[in-house]
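notes to self, project folder thing:

trying the whole complex as one job this time. last attempt i did each chain seperately and stitching them together was a nightmare. three parts in total, labels are on each line so i dont mix them up again. if this works i'll redo the older ones the same way
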Amino acid sequence: MQVILLRRTMGFVLTLIAVSVIVFAVMNVLPGDPAITILGIDSTEDARAALRAELGLDRPVWLRYLDWVWHAAQGDFGTSYFFRVPVTELITERLPLTLSLALAGMTVTVVVGITLGMIAAARHGTFGDWAIMLFSQMGIAVPAFWLSILLVLLFAVGLRWLPPGGFPGWDEPLLAARSLILPTTALALVQSAVLARVTRSSALEVMRLDFVRTARATGLSRWRVLRRHILPNALVPIVTIVGMQVAAVVTGTIVIENVFYLPGLGRLIFQSIANRDLFTVQALVVLFAAIVVTANFLVDIAYVLIDPRLKGRMT
Amino acid sequence: MIEANDITVRFGTAEALRGINLTLSPGQRLGIVGESGSGKSMLGLSLMGMLPDAAGMSGQIRIDGTDMTGAKIASWRAIRARKVAMIFQEPLAALNPLRRVGNTVMEPLRQHLGHSKDAARARVLQLFEETGIQDPVAKFRQFPHELSGGQRQRVLISLALACNPKVLIADEPTTALDAHVALRITDLLVRLAEERGMALVFISHDLAAVARTAQDIAVMYGGEIVERGPVHAVLSSPHHPYTQGLLLARPALGAGHLRERLPVIPGTVPAMRDLAVGCRFSGRCAVELPHCATERPASRPVGAHHDAACHRIGAAT
Amino acid sequence: MRAHRAINLWLGAALVLPMIAIAAISLIWTPYDVTLLDVGNKFAPPSPSHWLGTDQLGRDVASLLMSASVNSLTVAFVAVGMGGSLGVMLGLLASAFGGWVETLVMRLADLGFAFPALLFAIMLATAFGPSLSNAILAIAFINIPVFARVARGAANQVWTRDFVLAGQAAGLGRARLTFDHILPNIAAPIIVQATIEFAVAILAEAALSYLGLGAQPPLPSWGRMLSEAQTLMYLAPELAIYPGLCIIIAVLGFGLLGDGLRDVTDPRLKQVRA
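result (full assembly):
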């Protein structure tokens, strides 16, 4: 068990390092000259030289990479060239919003997706099952940003129940929560459709197994058999998908924040692309990729916790 | 304990069970034998109200004084575990792989009898003891995949016995086990039935196992009971041609290494929908009469408590 | 069950084929020139002359949607084609050599999953400026690990088949076996995956163009039409509906087609789609 965990953790750290190399290579090395990336092609050679000296861009590539990683590991992503403040400060200011959106989106996804999937499996072959699967099939094809626009059209433009976008700040918790309802719904609806599908097919497969018959023969209620016997055994594929969905929801916040004009990390990325703020974008991309990698790592660990049979076997 | 009258189970137009009559008194041990596809497992499931959704059932069933005829699923649930319990063929598959076996056995105690956690735990250890599980405290915390086949089946028996049922239905409980383990499990079932005054329905394709376990035997073919009676009577003087064929197909005990070619019943069990309207065995029967395929033979006494359903019985042979 | 399978296939084809036909037609004819501005006739309601009305610049919406379908299909085709071929080659390589080559390729594929198309597009946009070709590269990139996995998994099974073993016994080289025997035998799962990834690519292109990381003006694109319509939501909400419907039809169509093809070719082949 400990050996497995150790190996997984080592793999995880190696992946993180590889991710940082890729990001650095694509954004810093491939374009040729970061000074041009930041200042634009029409900048003068003098200005570029000055910037290179200021940011230490004249050093060898590997040294710049090590310097960047070394500081990044300590939470220092350099200074934003556009905002003239530490990138870390920009991130920590906006992180709560993005994190709340992602957490809310994930919670709704898991609760709605698993519930609908289990209901569909329990009512297999009925109208309810069919309706849930239709919702699921549609949900998979609907782009989240278009769904957002539809939600805004309906609930903000038409019914005027909720704000069409923007964020009032955390000083007004109720208003803040209200402004996150539509973004969360847009983010979670599509993902819960995917999860409902996977939950249903996984549960249907488990339902055919003998121990479910044993549980029924023990006189347990249908609901209890579903919840305590079928669901835990159906969990492995569900957790796999949930892990992939963490990635989808976290990167989904980038899109959704731009649809709803929410001042989170996703907005920051796009502002920074427009401002050619290289270090800020670089930090954010690494951050998002690290979240994706961490989600996958946690899923790997979760398998062992879910299924005692894997303890001895996993290598 | 159980009184079943004219039980018929249909899947569309095909009859999986036809006109089954069955009575079982407290402590009685009934063996049901037949090939796969004979309907013996279907009969076990119908006594639990656990037939597949697609199945339609008719006939009367009384279980321990409660009329279960046409009962709703909720009424069946109320008697499962408490009046009738069932164990199955493949003990590894029949146990939830993600649960410690102790927790699995605790569940009905907590759910149905409202035991506290401690009381349920104590009771589980007692049940493990009773079913011959060595070192119950350690086994309590183990997962199914960590136990041996025999231990798993004992756990399943503990689970079935948890709520002190009046009837235990054992569907091929020893088929998946090694021969010596299987013997111990059958002996355990007999002992438990005797000690608890519990009726036992022992379903098996293995005549030897049934002979060792049961007092009475019912031979099934094509969804019907074709012959029934005390074990020794049926085995020593089988009256139905199918029973005779089954007995001949069995290798004689102690026949030594010189095993002759076994006379087997020609053909295989036909599919449900291809069964003859009359005697189910017609088509494979060696002594078939012209009207066998179209007329259903009634069950007739052939000895003390011994009946068989064959047109040959009573007719000139 | 069989009927159900066929439904996916036919429904998918019924959605996809007309869309391809319309895209092909729009290459030679659209009701109006999409670059033709007619500001005097902006926000015109649907009428016989403009089936779906006109947009904020007086352009014919139906013509724009038709032209945009070319963009979507081309991007999906090029991106899945590039990423897919590279991925399949890597998968075949991994399967043919096994050992550390296989481990290395699969580890790299795992690594590829750390970068959703959006993150990759963001990196490219920062480094080289936003453009449709960068969007294509980003979508192509995420296809590499997907196809590497599918190809390697399918190829590993084929390597154990008798005719391949016979070929090995006859002294045929790995390269020869791979192209003559392995590749033709993994074509079915590859085509199925490609159809499904086509749907994913169309969705990704729309999202990237919506965010300004894909098609640039004046190239018509469903995603970009949506981002323009969003600013006009109070004036002309219907402009935000049509492009979305087009995206759904395309994504649903290719998704169903892929599911249908998979069910027909091999019902056991289950690739998780998220």
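what i see at first glance: Confidence is low (pLDDT under 50) at residues 269-274 of chain C.
need to look closer tmrw
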